[in-house]
Amino acid sequence: MKLLSVNVGRPRPNPWKGKQGTGGRTGIDKRPVEGPVAVAAPVHEGTGEVGLAGDRAYDVAHHGGADQAVYAYAREDLDGWQRELGVPLANGAFGENLTTCGIDVNGAVIGERWRVGAEVVLEVSCPRLPCATFQGWMGRNGWNREFTRAGLPGAYLRVITPGEIRAGDPVVVVHRPAHGVSVGHTFRAVMTEAKLLPSLLDVAELPENVRELARKRIEGGKAGAGG
């Protein structure tokens, strides 16, 4: 298991922002970089800070911060999308910071910890959810529906131990919680299979906003059933 590339965003105009306030720019255009990249936990929430030096988020209401410090996507899944879409997809094409090889990113358990290289430790926090910018970037009508149906969202990670990473670094799973709730399971619960929502409530490693969303939807479903 290793990193194929470490990708950092190049700011560009965001004509796809819709109702989301992004300051008119997006960092979804991630490109591989050479050499070591510093990784550290974002200090200030809601400012666009992310985990990789030289990168940032512009839609600060929905991206960035400690729970979305780093985004990982598997090269194997990008290859599957290449075949499905019939277009080449370079490392970073989905806006991921880490393009991985040999890692079941969507099968990773929430709270699972990865040691990357010699010193950095990252913790799986939640799946990526599709947005208007992602659909616009891909240039396909209905892209977000396709992405959701596939159930291959990739994973956001927190920074537990800072340091430097680079392409080619090994990735080792050093901790895996026993609850078994994976990135893919969480994505399906939130996006397509409401019956799975109760399984998220006791996963302490999930961001609080995800658990709160699950609680509200469960309560809303009970109210609808009662009506």
Shape descriptor: globular
Structural class comes to: alpha+beta
Reported for the largest beta sheet, the result is:
8 strands, mixed
Structure annotation, total helices: 5
Summarize the helix and strand pattern as letters: EEEEEEHEEEHHEEEHH
In percent, how helical is the residue content? Answer: 10-25%
Spatial arrangement of strands, main beta sheet = 4-1-7-6-10-9-8-12
Low-confidence stretches: none
Mean pLDDT across every amino acid position = 92
- Distance from first to last alpha carbon: 51 Å
Q: How many strands in all?
A: 12
Radius of gyration: 17 Å
Beta-strand percentage range = 15-25%
Can you walk me through this structure?
It is globular and about 50 Å long. An eight-stranded mixed beta sheet has the order 4-1-7-6-10-9-8-12. A two-stranded antiparallel ribbon has the order 2-3. Strands 5-11 form a two-stranded antiparallel sheet. With 227 residues, the chain is an alpha+beta fold. It contains five helices and twelve strands.
List keywords for this structure.
single chain, alpha+beta, eight-stranded mixed beta sheet, two-stranded antiparallel ribbon, 24% strand
Quick synopsis:
It contains 5 helices and 12 strands. It is of the alpha+beta class.
List the SSEs and their pairings.
Elements: E1 2-9, E2 12-13, E3 25-26, E4 30-32, E5 37-39, E6 70-74, H1 75-85, E7 98-101, E8 113-116, E9 120-127, H2 132-138, H3 143-150, E10 155-161, E11 163-165, E12 171-175, H4 183-191, H5 208-226
